[in-house]
Sequence to fold (650 residues):
Amino acid sequence: MKNTTLTATLLLTALILSTTAAAQDYTRWGLPEGAVLRLGKGKLTGEIAYSPDGKLLAVASAIGVWLYDANTFKEVALLVGHLDAVVETTRFSPDGETLASGGTIGYEGNTTGTIHLWDVTTGTIKNTLTARTVSFSPDRNTLASADYHDRTIRLWNVNTGELKNTLTGHTGSIASVCFGPDGQTLASAYYDKTIRLWNVAAGTLQKTFAGHIHEVYRLSFSPNGQTLASEGWNNEKIHLWNVATGTLQNTVTGHSARFSSDGNTLASASSDGTVRLWDVNTGELRQTFGGHAGSVISVCFSPDGKTLASASRDGTVRLWDVNTGTLQTALTEHIADVSTVCFSPDGHTLASAGSDSRIRLWDVATGERHQTLISHTSGITSVCFSPDGQILASGGGDRMIWLWDITTGTFRNPLTGHTDAVNSVCFSPNGNTLASGSEDKTVHLWDVATGEHLTTLLGHTDAVNSVCFSPDGNLLASGGYDTIRLWDVPSSTPRNILTGNTYFGFLSVCFSPDGQTFASGRASQMEGDGTTIQLWDIPSGILQKTLNSVPDSPVMDGVSSTDGSVLSVCFSPDGQTLASGYSGPAEGSASGSIWLWDAATGEHLRSLIGHTNAVTSVYFSPDGKTLASGSSDGTVLLWDLASPTSEKNR
Fold:
């Protein structure tokens, strides 16, 4: 990893000096080794939080914590330290000098957490705790932490890092701890469906609240300490408790409960894309803010109570005027999952698309987004430039294929005919024909000039995930969950069927530039089953090599890169290198790996580690010097392949 301390320091210094150059260059902040540019800020994954003075807004994302200037809404810094975790928690200390960021690691119950404590002024990590949740005491001298596994709460001296006390009593894992405003009471909750109040000084249990029918996920005290809000796990219910009596006062709908500074209003996030304001005393709904196109993850009041921030899975953070309910501004580029990337033939433009139904065209040299194409009504699974670079084809979950004029940004009439999601589109080498593969188990061929449907290739018994033309355009390969099929394009007849060791099928197929070799990426979800890339001889249809078991693959909680699926394979323009993108059973660097292979020998050359979730698409630039990778972490990374030691972070 790059020197994140130096990066954050320089960026925070830039804020103090009120320069704008740094804010324009966030595409190069906190880059992993070997990467030269990042497109997108990472999908939103957790809490947002204002600093106590209201000057900073912290936003949890798949790649780290972004700090924004709360007045100008410009990027201030990117704190990168949770490579093996999804950042869910952001908490400022009461004096604003420390930021706690928390992420979860693992999968399927084998989950733990890591909390980084950041010096907000310098951007350095002061301490790291193995914990799932933390809370600062109001006097900032004590930090409470808890983890999934040991069912205990630990109280730490913030200044010395020494353990002050340990609180025990929960019969299940703990997901949330929260200090009361007087600092004398600590609330905790999770799997045992109870909420416990502790006397901090004595370390004794004061009260136990019971009433949730689901696990309790998050807690929040009102500013006067008289009311405690608790959220049930995945049931959109927030309970408001009288702290003194332990009685349930009201129940409102939503999650991510946050009190206003005067304690009279509670804001909640909703899965329907709305933000709701509730009267704390009566439980009545006061106001609803609508506008997000996806589920709202987190809400947070500014310290003066005038602004409410909301983060959504639509990739935006919206700032609302609390009194009028009007939208003030929106922070963008927190892109949802990126499922596909493609370079233009001249290498100057990169297209990316994903689950937010938008196609973004990026300037490769500057990282600027110069165009956004919108027409799909569902997630986009594949984009492909025509050989002359004038047309971009896109296919997605809405069963539609769109052909875009790159110069004007306009689209032609859509190509219709598939009865289920379109998973892959590919132009023939002469640009006259477009192939499409679909969940409907068919491959369609289209006339690009007229939009006419030419033929349907039948034979697959399951979804077709990937299609690719041979360099001479005479063969078309289609990879599905059942088999790989090779088709003679002029006659539209099957040439060969390749099965190999399929298990869960084939997710990606690609011809070598000389047309003699064919690569396939295999799907697998069985632990210990292995992650496999297969190289096939085209003339004979014989399996030549099987590539797996990368020696330097990351290992996380026993999950290695030998357990998972290869989502994308791509040959370099000279045919000497094969790139593959990996998806594992857990989020983190063990899932977000890219492997480079010697195409002739099958030798593993190098691993590119930096994405924090599945690598869904890899694509070489036309000159072979740059590799683009798209990921479910919501970013595209451009990797320098010209030298073994790539440019370091600046």
